[in-house]
Amino acid sequence: MKKIIVPLFAGLLLGLALAFLFGWRPAMQHTVESATTAEHAERQILYWYDPMKPEAHFEQPGKSPFMDMDLMPRYADENPNVATGFALSPALTQNLGVKFGTVEKGALRPAVEISGSVGFDEHAVAVVQARAGGIVERAYPLAVGDMVAAGTPLADVRVPEWYAAQGEYLALRSEPQLAAAARARLLQLGMTAAQIAALEKRGTPNAVVTFHALRAGMLSEFDLRQGMTIDAGQTLARINGIDVVWITAQAPETEAAGLDMGGKATLSFTAFPGQIFTGSVSALIPELNRDTRTLVARIALPNPNHKLRPGMAAQIRLEQPEGAEHLLVPTDAILATGKRHIVIAAADGGRFVPVEVTTGREVDGKTEILSGALNAGERIVLSGQFMLDSEASLRGVLARMDDTKESALGLHQGVGTVKSVDTTEIVLAHDPIPELRWPAMTMPFALKNPEAGANVAAGQKVRFYFVQREEGAVVERVEALP
Fold this sequence. Notes:
The chain contains eight helices and 31 strands. Residues about 1-40, about 80-85 and about 400-410 have low confidence and may be disordered. The protein folds into four domains: about 95-110 and about 325-400, Beta Barrel (conserved putative lor/sdh protein from methanococcus maripaludis s2 fold), CATH 2.40.420; about 125-240, CATH 2.40.50.100; about 240-320, Beta Barrel (Elongation Factor Tu (Ef-tu), domain 3); about 410-480, CATH 2.40.50.320. Strands 4, 6, 21, 22, 23, 24 and 25 form a seven-stranded antiparallel sheet that branches. The protein has a six-stranded antiparallel beta barrel with strand order 7-16-19-18-17-20. A five-stranded mixed β-barrel has the order 27-28-29-31-30. α3 packs antiparallel against α4 (about 175-190). The longest helix is centred in the N-terminal third of the chain and has 41 residues, at about 1-40. The chain is of the alpha+beta class.
């Protein structure tokens, strides 16, 4: 009996083990697989793809043959339409490296960036000339390019004509009227009042006269040598002041309208890296250079330490008057496709909407948006646009923008019957609008302007075109249907 019971008991244990292995466990596995299948059944998968190479499609999940990553599913409910763009999962958005910014409203202050060179201040020039002929007795050791202070002696010149006139003046000092005439003659010959006062104090004529620098600055002309003869009116020296320097710049003709007298200028020099100088436009030469088609602007720049030397090169930024207010986006957000400029707006629910825009001026990394369905405060894509553009092109969004440009700009259309209309509002009983998932209903729409609904009346069948704004739907135009 015991020999029969033992095999039966062993068989029972073996049966329970087999039941556990082949009964209970498959049931658990079936439960997991059912949940997964149900999840997939909720969202139909069209294909699998690598987000870094989205044009390649795969029928089954697995590892990407291009990158060390899993393939991603493309769901049927992600198919875009013109109005709502296309949707991406948060994980894919992160993998694409998408970063966001915000549309702003403001005015740009454009600037012209040009090159220029340092020159002398032509208003600060002193010329030393001989008013009578003579002989250079001594030329002081100076040369062109030397810096001189005001009053620095330049040359000792023997002037015979002055010697005779000085003697005449000293002889006639006792006769006031004659002395006055003689003094006037000395002044006409070129003697200064200080030299005449020294003559009166000395009491004897001096045949040799010392010429001095009339101002501080740099000698730009000096060609005196001992023993040389000079004539009346001959230039002995030319001195340029350098307390102020002129920066001369040539602005393109296209920028001429934005340049103003007194406009702010910011300058930098290769000789002083990292140092910024500020000045203002002191003159605009009225004549345009016919060869280079440029306008010459002059900037007067204080030079108290004499650091700036004529001939130095300068990089100049001339600020223009502030422009009108426009929507502004970071320049990096604009995607040039060859046919148009696109900004990708980030909508709710992970959707992205390519918006065609017309761009204006670009200043300091910001670009004006002159037209396009964008609003201040709206989120836009700053980086990763090229990957998103690939996604959008793959699924036909940008292609449909060519066919239906109005829709790409955010303009929707519908058909309905006018219930009432005035200058500010129209009430329509419209048919379903699939692109917005609107059912048929009767609802009011704001009118963009009184003319938008001026050609229709209550009871008419119409086609209407509208845009979605934060404040609601706004009808831009209404067309009566037969």
